[in-house]
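Not sure how to ask, but would you mind making up any protein sequence you like and the tokens describing how it folds?
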Amino acid sequence: MPSHRLPRLPGPTAPPARRPEAPADLEKFNAAPADDARRALLTCCRSPRWAHRVADHRPYPDLDSLLAAADEAAYDLTPGDLTAALARESLAPLPAGAHSAAHTALSAAHTAYQSRFGHMFVICLDDVAPDEAADRVLDAIRSRLTNDPDDERPLAAEELRRLARGRLTRLICDPSGLAMAESVR
């Protein structure tokens, strides 16, 4: 019987891809007591239901799995959960050195938005340069103020999901983000 050998391949062959190690703070998050993990998660999305759901599905093997679970939990928020989470959001701080005219314009726009929709304006600015943030927020508020409340609700939910995803990534990976050790104690 002939031996079963692999054919000789020309040129170098690549070793199997190694799976990157989970960030150390993901391991801390996975090992944290449930109440501590939920408290940390509430800094990412202020929905208790979302935080419970994400915490209850631990451990996560990697950041992508955690983010997928967070997205799924965000998509499943009830209207009441979304209302509660939006009510707990706060205004994004303006970059240092923003002119008082920008503060005035943004304050007026936020007030108009809250009056029309009954909740805080939310927008994810993770992909926006800090010096462009104020303009982007003002443009987005003005644009979204023209929406019907039924059309605005899913947009706000999507921005909240994106915000939670960015905050969660910083919580787990970014040393300048939230310190997991401090938030889960």
Observations:
- The CA atoms of residues 91 and 120 lie 7 Å apart.
- The chain has one domain: 33-178.
- DSSP finds nine helices and no strands in the chain.
